[in-house]
Amino acid sequence: MERANPTSDRSSSFPTGYTAQGLQMRKIRLRTKFLITLLAISAGLTAATLLIVSYNVEKRIRDDIRVDLENSVNNYRRFERQRRDSLARSAQLLASLPNIRALMTTHDAATIQDGSAEVWRLSGADLLLMADRSGNIAALRTKTDGLSQSDAQSLLRKSLDSGEDRGWWYGGGHLYETWLQPIYFGAPGDGSTLGVLVIGHEIHDRAAREFGNLVAGDIAYFDGGALVASTLNAEQKHDLDVLCRNYPGGPLVAKVIQLGRERFLVSTVTLSDNADASVTLSIFKSLDRATSFLHDLNRVLIGLGVLSVLGGSVLVFLISGTFTKPLENLVGGVHALERGDFQYPLEVTTGDEVAEVTAAFDRMRASMEKSQLEQKGLEERLRQAHKMEAVGRLAGGVAHDFNNLLTIIRGHSDLLLDRGSLEDSQRHNLDQIQKAAGKAVTMTRQLLAFSRMQVLQPRVLDLNTIVTDLGKMLPRLIGEDIEYVFVPDPKLGPVKADPGQIEQVLMNLVVNSRDAMPAGGTITVRTRNVLLDKAEAQRRAPMLPGEYVLLSVSDTGMGMSAETKAHIFEPFFTTKEVGKGTGLGLATVYGVVKQSGGFVWVESTPGQGATFEIYLPKVLERAARHDADDKPAEIKPGHETILVVEDENDVRELACEFLMMTGYSVLRARHGVEAIDLLRRHSGTIDLVLSDVVMPKMGGSELAARLPSIRPGTKILLMSGYSEYAVESQNNDDRPRHLMLSKPFSRSSLIEKVREALAGSAAPVEKEPAPVKSV
Q: Phi and psi at residue 487, in whole multiples of 5°?
């Protein structure tokens, strides 16, 4: 399979550079990869071979050294038995000499000390000691200084108390192997003794070297863990001494240790028979000396490995060209895909695995191109949604603060208009203030609707009824040159929304369609049930699959471009002339629909008109009756006592003045804590608490929750101009629902809500649907 390249520049310039220099460079890089792979494999095999051979040889050498150590230990034990027998015979011969008996009969220490010199010379021992029958030393002779007579006396007492003939004496830094022989007055069997003769051989470095030559290794004598004599050099002795101090866990048996720069295999044999003594001999066999021949073997194996790597690399380099060319073509396609080129020509001339991978890559590339286009569309819609969310939060915050100001402006202008002594010019001025305030209230409500922060009172309703009732005035609104058509679905399902806000949505859409048809046309309003499947929901992200009720408004106007369509829901965006529009109509539509849990979708093409589709979730409840002709009730005087809780002084005073003008008795509090204190202290009846939702120290929601325990018969009416707090005060299922008064309020709206709260006939405020993200 070969795909043609539609781009002339690529088809003319790329193949020449690719087949000549570019191809050669790519071949070299690919072949180098094969060569590096072979080098790595060969080096790995060679290293593994060296490790295996070295391990096996070293293991065999260690086993041989262990056997050699056991033989050396056995040889030493035979040697030790022979030397012990020789020492015993020497001691017996010396003890039986007449001159020794004669010396011991004198019982004079000085005489015995002087006479012991000839006996010591005859014995050839390193230590000679003669003691009387009580164990007191009479003569002491040593070849080296260090063993004092007091140390020798203590060692002799221990040997006599143990009853052993043979022993190990360590004193003054010297270790002696000793033999004790009684000196008898007569024959050995008659039981009469004159004293004790002790002869010993010192264990020093020279004796250690003599035995080391015998076992063909290094040896070390220890007494109680202290190194006494050894054939090791100074550095090795130091390391051995540190090792014995740090690990005093017992003798070194069949262990590999590091002494200096050499590794040794060591075995230890206990020399002392007495459990209280701890004289040991350690025999060391150098592991490094025994394995030194391995270095030559490793050099030979490395040389063979290098030769095999070089030969194999040359062979791979020569034959790699037969299969690297298709891979180079595939790599070129991958690099082109990284640059965003989905049309790079892929060549498939064989039927091997590379051809299958190339064909699969071509299919994957086509799928990625399609997915990339879809992703760009989704990203654009997501950016638009985030921008709308940020602008909405800003607009809602401004409108919230503006509500309190409008409440004061409208309220005081209403109070001035109620005065009968106004001149015409003054009344005209107040009317202008009222009109401007009314426009500001409308704009504020539109901003709150756009930002989904307006206080809604949703209920289950039938859209057909809403459109039919509003349709009585729409023809007069759009003009005679525009035809109005309503196509209802007779089996339309109910939805849950604020009927007043839905009327505002429909009116804004119709007005927008009217302005798009300056020369006249047709506006068509349709309602129908819609079942949105998963595929359609994905096409209109972020909509979710499910059942919806669709309200659409279509016109035959001028339509709009994609650029205009991307900004139509932004507040204050308008295509009309200056002074012809506020730019809040479609922004209000967007906010109301989104706050009601619905979605907005727009289809438009320049010159082909536009269709706005409103999707509201279908509910199972039955629609409530909608009466479009309801009129505000007449203000009637009251007499009850009302506690007004509001942190804004001007708003609080205005509400109190409205209530007092109507005949109510008024109490004031700045926040919830002050209201609680007043509720407890006031001795009279308090019929109603009128409280703002958001206040310092304690808000209206908490005040409403605590009110029944303080004043069980007192009712409460909450007021807010910000649905984020109003809904929060109603959405706690553990608390009862309360009536809500929206800011800004007039005297009539305030008194109407107060009468409704006092009568207790109002239905609870229903829970607002959770907002769902829409486009």
A: -120, 95
Burial class of 419 by CB neighbour count within 10 A (0 to 12, 13 to 18, 19+): exposed
Sheet (strand 226-230) strand order: 226-230, 218-223, 279-286, 262-270, 255-259
Cβ burial of 364 (10 Å; 0-12, 13-18, 19+) is exposed
E strand segments, 136-225: 137-142, 166-171, 174-184, 193-203, 218-223
Of the candidates 718, 171, 249, 726, which has an alpha carbon nearest to the alpha carbon of residue 456? 726
Could you tell me which residues are beta bridge partners of residue 548? 530, 617
Rg (CA), the chain: 55
The full 3-state SS of 534-593, as one line of letters, equals: HHHHHHCCCCCCEEEEEEEEEECCCCCCHHHHCCCCCCCCCCCCCCCCCCCHHHHHHHHH
- Dump pLDDT digits (tens) for 351-378: 677 777 777 878 888 888 777 777 776 6
Q: Is the pTM for the entire model greater than 0.85?
A: no
Token pair 């002594």: residue:
421
| Element (DSSP H or E) covering residue 655 | helix 649-661
The CB density around residue 311, as the number of other CB atoms within 10 Å, is 11
Give 25 or 248, the one with higher predicted confidence.
Answer: 248
Sign of the CA dihedral 703, 704, 710, 713? Answer: positive
Q: What is the share, in percent, of the chain residues with pLDDT greater than 90? A: 10
CA 42 to the chain's CA centroid:
41
Residue 452 has pLDDT above 70, yes or no: no
Among 503, 529, 545, 500, which Cα is nearest to 618's? 529
pLDDT value of position 439: 64
Q: Is the CB of residue 407 less than 8 Å from the CB of residue 744? A: yes
Mean pLDDT over 506-517 rounds to 86
Q: In the chain, what's the furthest Cα-to-Cα distance?
A: 163
Hey, what are 248's tokens?
A: 């005093």
Are 628 and 533 a contacting pair, CB within 8 Å?
Answer: no
> Can you give the pLDDT at residue 124?
83
